[in-house]
Amino acid sequence: MGLGISWKKAAIISAVVHLIALFIAVIFFVVVPAIQDMETYEIDLTQSVLDDGGSGHAGGGGGNRADLFPKPLSADEVAARTKAVVANVEPSTATDIPDAVDV
C-alpha cells in the first residue's frame, strides 16, 4: 500500500512537526514583541516646543510667539483685496478644439 510507514512513526513525525510549529509560533508571538518593546521609546507630548521661543528645528528662525501668525484683516481690507483680485481676472473664452481623430 505504499511506503509502509506505521502509525507509530506517523504519530512521532506529526508530534515533531507540531512541536516545530509551536516553537515558531512562540518565537513570533513572544520574542518578537519583547524585542520591539525594547526598541520603543516615548515622546512626551505634554511639553510644548514653543516654550523656549525657538522654532523647533536647528535651522533657527525662532522668535516671538506673537509673530507666529499675522494679524487678522479687517472687513474693509478683505473687501478691497477681493475687489482687486476680481478686477484683475480676465474671463476666459471658450475655444473650439479640433477632434484628435478624423472619422
Structural class, judged by helices and strands? mainly alpha
Q: Tell me the β content.
A: under 5%
- Output the radius of gyration: 36 Å
Shape: elongated
Please bin the fraction of helical residues.
40-55%
The major pleated sheet works out as: none
H/E series = HH
Number of strands: 0
Distance between the termini: 73 Å
Uncertain spans: none
**Mean of residue pLDDT values:** 79
Number of continuous helical runs: 2
Question: What are its keywords?
Answer:
103 residues, membrane, mainly alpha, TonB family protein
Characterization of the model:
This is TonB family protein. Keywords: Membrane, Transmembrane, Transmembrane helix. This protein is an all-alpha fold. The protein has a domain of 37 residues. Helices cover 46% and strands 0% of the residues. It has two helices and no strands. It is elongated. The termini are far apart.
Layout of strands and helices, then pairs:
Blueprint: H1 7-39, H2 75-88
TL;DR?
This is TonB family protein. The protein is mainly alpha-helical. The protein is 46% helix and 0% strand.
